[in-house]
Specification:
The chain is of the alpha+beta class. The chain is built from 15 helices and 10 strands. The protein has a 6-stranded mixed β-sheet, with helices on both faces. It has a two-stranded antiparallel ribbon with strand order 1-2. It has a two-stranded antiparallel sheet with strand order 4-5. Helix 6 (150-165) packs across helix 7 (178-192) and helix 10 packs across helix 12 (362-370). The longest helix is centred in the N-terminal third of the chain and has 29 residues, at 78-106. The protein is elongated, with a radius of gyration of 39 Å.
Length: 445
């Protein structure tokens, strides 16, 4: 005990030193670990910076011809960076220009201005009247026609008799001379035997292609209710207008090809001989929308009807809003050969067209369909030969001597939403899953 008392100070200092030693060494492990982590992080930053510094840089590729990027021999300076940004802006402007051009090529007029998306007062009745008149006048607008009927031949016979032969009969005392009448009648009968072929050829020389009376697709509302005087609803007007837009392009493709290929300007040597049928389906990905009280959903496939290039009194300059006007992509649709479905950029309209065409000109017609028309003919569903002689004898058509086939072609047309969404009735937008907040204002004149 005396020893402790004599050395109390040494003991106290020893204990303090021991405690200090323990206090120093206790957290050293964690501090060391933290230091190692920070060191590793700094090493990664250093490695990343070295990689950036040593990375091979290239000049922006501004050519669309698949050119190889040129190496940049120095780290980008502010001037180079600004130059790159300028190129990016110019390329973006060019892309937008291409898109604007596509919209202008794709855009179609309304039959009646201000009839969509919500018709102004009385416009729904005006659309009905213009649409029905349009259907009647379409063959003349595209220089098409139906083959002559027996009534046409009979009318030609009557006109021939009255204009050429009846005046040649000798009249004696107010009574036709029997001998003169017999001779004139014999001459008339001789020419009348050749009249059916002459009428057929006259008709063929006057048209660019034949068209079946039931070839073209009419919206069901206008076939079933027009006589009742009911006003078409916005979905019914949209359905009719959609068919017109698509069939315009198909008919115009026939006109363009025949006008370019025919030397006589007639069906006799034109590639497309007859438009047999067009059927336009609903927008792909859209749910059914009833046009008025018709039992068939929008875009169904009723018999008859057609669309085509509108005449001058229907064109009406339409200054469309070129804003984006996009919504959601809409309901999912079945897979197709192209894989295209409704999306924020465009809607897809499937169709099928049946034509009689010169056999070796079918590829030309498929190409013509796609020329500046946003149409993809993706399948020749069926093809069979046509007996020109037999068909001419039974239906009074004149197809010429080249082999002809009947081709059924499936295709799809694209309608860009930049211009269609502002024209869509609300029901159509909902069927496509388009956001209701999308601009739906009527385009200005």
């Amino acid at each position: 005990m005396d020893l402790v008392k004599k050395n109390i100070l040494s003991i106290i200092f020893g204990v303090v030193a021991l405690i200090a030693l323990i206090a120093w060494t206790w957290p050293l492990g964690s501090i060391k670990a933290e230091a190692e982590q920070e060191l590793n992080a700094r090493a990664k930053v250093y490695s990343s910076m070295q990689s950036i510094l040593s990375q091979q840089r290239t000049m922006p590729v501004t050519s669309l011809d698949g050119a190889e990027p040129e190496p940049l021999g120095m780290f980008p300076t502010q001037k180079v960076i600004e130059w790159g940004r300028d190129i990016t802006k110019r390329m973006a402007a060019e892309v937008q220009g291409v898109k604007d051009l596509a919209v202008r090529l794709n855009q179609r007029p309304l039959l009646v201005p201000y009839s969509l998306p919500v018709p102004q007062p009385t416009m729904e009745f005006r659309f009905r009247d213009v649409y029905l008149r349009y259907l009647t006048e379409f063959p003349q607008l595209v220089k098409a026609g139906t083959p002559p009927t027996q009534d046409d031949v009979t009318k030609a016979e009557q006109e021939l008799w009255k204009s050429k032969y009846e005046p040649n009969i000798v009249i004696r005392d107010g009574v036709p001379d029997p001998i003169s009448q017999q001779l004139v009648t014999a001459e008339f009968n001789s020419e009348r035997a050749q009249l059916p072929d002459r009428v057929k050829m006259q008709k063929a020389r006057s048209i660019l292609f034949y068209i079946q009376p039931t070839a073209l697709d009419v919206s069901t509302h206008f076939t079933q209710q027009a006589s009742a005087g009911s006003a078409p609803t916005p979905p019914a007007i949209w359905d009719a207008q959609l068919k017109v837009w698509i069939q315009n392009d198909i008919a115009q493709a026939i006109v363009d090809l025949n006008s370019r290929e025919s030397k006589t300007g007639s069906v006799i040597d034109a590639p497309v001989k007859q438009l047999v049928q067009i059927r336009v389906e609903n927008l792909r990905g859209a749910t059914a929308v009833r046009p008025g009280s018709s039992s068939m959903g929008m875009g169904g496939m009723p018999p008859g009807g057609f669309g085509g290039p509108p005449p001058d009194y229907m064109m009406g300059g339409m200054g469309m809003d070129m804003g984006m006007g996009m919504g959601s992509s809409g309901p999912a649709a079945p897979e197709t050969l192209t894989g295209r479905t409704a999306n924020p950029l465009y809607d897809v309209v499937p169709f099928q067209v049946t034509i009689h065409i010169q056999a070796d000109k079918l590829p030309d017609f498929l190409e013509e369909l796609a020329r500046n028309r946003f149409i993809t003919p993706y399948q020749v569903v069926s093809m069979k030969s046509v007996n020109n002689v037999l068909l001419g004898a039974t239906t009074n058509v004149v197809y010429g001597t080249a082999p002809v086939v009947e081709a059924v072609i499936a295709g799809e047309a694209l309608l860009l939403r930049d211009w269609t969404v502002p024209l869509m009735p609300q029901e159509i937008k909902q069927s496509l899953g388009i956001d209701g907040s999308t601009d739906g204002s009527v385009p200005t004149m």
